[in-house]
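I am still getting used to backbone structure tokens and would like to learn alongside you. Label the sequence line and the structure token line clearly, so we can match residues to local backbone shapes. Go ahead whenever you are ready, and we will take it from there:
>
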Amino acid sequence: MNSDQIKGKAKEIGGKIQEEAGELVGSSKQQAKGVANQVEGKVQKKVGDTREALDDALDDKTTIDRGNR
């Protein structure tokens, strides 16, 4: 797990809390900010997922290359 995955998930959770709080107090502005933060968090987590998959693929390639020598 990398920092983008962690920060993204945290932002997503925080956004959900903000959205729910906005709904509770009747603030459509806070709800919208919460939804926006959830989207940002999901994107950041997806960047982290992609980065991790790329790192894993490079590690696998390095292992394969070493085995062929």
